[in-house]
Amino acid sequence: MAGQQSPTSTLPLPTTNLPATFMKEITRDFTDNQEVGRSVFGTVYKGVLPDGGVLAVKRLAENAPVAPGTTFDNEVANLMALKHNNIVQLVGFCHEPQKKVIQHSGRYVIVDMIESCLCYEYLANGSLDKHIYGLKHGLSKDKSVSKKK
Fold first, then answer.
1. E-assigned strands of the chain?
2. CATH classification of 20-144 is 3.30.200.20, yes or no?
3. What's the chain's average pLDDT?
């Protein structure tokens, strides 16, 4: 693909911890119409970079099942080291502590939360599970790969 610009061209690679404000900006504050997928680990959003490039941003759920003893940094290092034609490349991440006000037992309290996101190459044809399970459940190919607008 000589001469083509990477869709992630505005990100320094290998990248460091990207700010949560950047994640919110490229996903339009994680709005529903940017959502492209969902799993037990979190929700995936389409992120549009300032130069028009596109990323898949997985915002990890606060209660995502993570193996005991593994840290976010170790997982990111392992994912970034993976290189294979059949695996979507991890190109960035966000792991940033934030203070949030929540209601607990009728009172408002300030809690420390961690905003955790993983940024992957964006594949425009949808996820593999939509192709496999969508077709398996009797959906036509057009319906199984339709995108939200």
1. 35-39, 42-48, 54-60, 90-104, 107-121
2. yes
3. 78
Give me Rg for the CA atoms of the chain: 17
Residues 38 and 105: their CA atoms lie apart, in Å, by 30
The domain limits of the chain are 20-144
- CA dihedral over 117, 13, 69, 96, signed as positive or negative: negative
CA distance 137 to 64: 27
Q: What token pair was written down for 56?
A: 């898949």
Per-residue CA distances from 130 to 39, 54, 77, 105, 134 (Å): 12, 20, 28, 40, 5
For 125-145, the pLDDT digits (tens) are 766 666 677 655 444 444 334
pLDDT-based confidence at residue 106 (cuts at 50, 70, 90): very high
Pick from 14-28, 32-46, 67-81, 116-130 the range whose average pLDDT is largest.
32-46
Sort 80 into a burial class: Cβ within 10 Å, 0-12 / 13-18 / 19+.
middle
Q: For the whole model, what pTM was predicted?
A: 0.71
Pairing between β-strand 90-104 and β-strand 107-121 as defined by DSSP bridges: antiparallel
What are the phi and psi torsion angles at 148 (to 5°)?
A: -75, 145
